[in-house]
Design a protein that fits this description.
Elements: H1 5-20, H2 23-30, E1 36-42, E2 51-57, E3 64-73, H3 76-83, E4 98-106, E5 118-121, H4 131-134, E6 161-163, E7 166-168, E8 180-184, E9 188-190, H5 197-200, H6 206-218, E10 225-229, H7 233-244, E11 249-253, H8 259-263, E12 270-272, H9 281-288, E13 295-298, H10 303-311, E14 319-322, H11 337-340, E15 344-347, H12 355-367, E16 377-382, H13 386-395, E17 400-404
Parallel strand pairs: 10-11, 10-13, 11-12, 13-14, 14-15, 16-17
Antiparallel strand pairs: 1-2, 2-6, 3-4, 3-8, 3-17, 4-5, 5-9, 6-7
């Protein structure tokens, strides 16, 4: 190592690629290779620009895989934990959890994945053995459920990242803002190798969360009315789910009127800005729909929006689904009669998708042109420009910014 981030890291990558192209050398060297050198974007402090660093990535241990990340995208959750407002600050850390790549190597006990497989790493997992994984109704794996405070691997409580011997924390078990990362095998979905990774990478978080909330949980029928609260990326994915389901009226609710024009591309055909009225927005929606929406999906995390989403659905059959994550001290208050009048309130996590079992079929829906991902991708940057992606998100200019890891 000569201390120059790009030179040493890329020389080691090329060496590893070379020996893996020669079966005999690959067989001999894999057991001896203890780490890879690569470039990662490290968050050293809250709110400070990420720094491209040369990072040592340890080999995968039991039930782990090491991935070569080819494309990543920036989700608002990355920004939220980078800013470290309202939650435990954990630094230094390698952020990133929406991505696509290829399996580089596998650890002991991994049988469903092999080097060369095209995959999506996911911030939650599926062990396929716990009660939740065995249930047809739940995707909340006991072993691999999201843990925002854990900066190490499950198997040994150690980080697989280090800089000159100093451990660097993981993020959501994925840390995809690195040319190579190590992930638990239960958090990796093997997908169709023909799928364009620069598009399907958005399926590993935001799109699936919103789309699944509609099609898997709200389940609107053809011709129904759906109200979507919050028209960010997740909300627009929820609207896309309503469009695919055949909803005739998709009402977008947002305090930013500039979002409506963009939302039309996702099937939203009516728009309500709560700021335009001197009464609760649920009353406005009930009036314009003749009693209430058939379904609603809340994607803001704002407690008032959650209450409005529930109270705006029709009595007798209305279903409201909460997706947004509220403040830790928030309390939802509504009159019990709203439940007695046969309205249903549900919550969902990752759109009720089991990552390993269900994401491959979502990729196929994209390949069959049933869902459109391109319209979610508004920007693209090289890895060296990753801080621009944060700027776009903070300015409200992007839905999803793709980060090409080869540049």
């Amino acid at each position: 190592r000569d201390g120059k981030h790009s030179w040493a890291g890329h020389k080691m990558q090329r060496f590893v690629s070379f020996i893996e192209d020669i079966p005999f050398l690959s067989l001999c060297c894999h057991t001896q290779l203890t780490f890879l050198l690569c470039v990662a974007a490290v968050a050293w402090e809250a709110g400070k620009p990420l720094v491209l660093e040369e990072v040592e990535v340890a080999p995968p241990q039991a039930m782990e895989v090491r991935l070569k990340i080819l494309y990543a995208s920036l989700c608002h959750t990355d920004v939220y934990f980078w800013e470290a407002k309202g939650q435990k600050p954990i630094f230094p850390r390698i952020l990133g959890h929406e991505a696509a790549g290829i399996v580089e190597s596998v650890g002991e006990g991994v049988t469903e994945l092999a080097p060369g497989d095209h995959v999506l790493p996911v911030f939650t997992g599926e062990c396929k053995e716990c009660a939740h994984c065995l249930s047809e109704e739940s995707n909340m794996c006991d072993l691999l459920r999201i843990n925002t405070d854990r900066g190490v691997m499950l198997s040994d409580g150690q980080s697989r990242f280090s800089i000159k011997g100093k451990p660097i924390n993981h993020f959501l078990g994925t840390s995809t803002f690195s040319e190579y990362t190590v992930v638990h095998s239960g958090c990796v979905a093997k997908i169709n190798p023909l799928a364009p990774l620069d598009k399907v990478c958005v399926l590993s978080c935001g799109f699936s969360t919103g789309f699944g909330a509609t099609v898997n949980v709200a389940k609107p029928t053809k011709g129904s009315t759906v109200a979507v609260f919050g028209l960010g990326a997740v909300g627009l994915a929820a609207a896309e789910g309503a469009r695919v389901s055949g909803a005739s009226r998709i009402i977008g609710v947002d305090v930013n009127p500039k979002r409506f024009e963009e939302a039309k591309k996702f099937g939203v055909n009516e728009f309500v800005n709560p700021k335009d009225y001197d009464r609760p927005v649920q009353e406005v929606i009930a009036e314009m729909t003749g009693g209430g929406a058939d379904r609603s999906v809340e994607c803001t995390g704002n407690i008032d929006a959650m209450i409005s989403a529930f109270e705006c659905v029709h009595d007798g059959w209305g279903v409201a689904v909460l997706v947004g994550v509220p403040h830790k001290d928030a309390v939802l208050k509504t009159h019990p009669v709203n439940f007695l009048n046969e309205r249903t309130l549900k919550g969902t996590f990752f759109g009720n998708y089991k990552p390993r079992s269900d994401l491959p079929s979502v990729v196929e829906r994209y390949m069959n042109k049933e869902i459109e991902l391109e319209k979610f991708i508004t920007h693209e940057v090289t890895f060296s420009e990753i801080n621009k992606a944060f700027d776009y998100m903070l300015q409200g200019a992007s839905l999803r910014c793709i980060i090409r890891m080869d540049g």
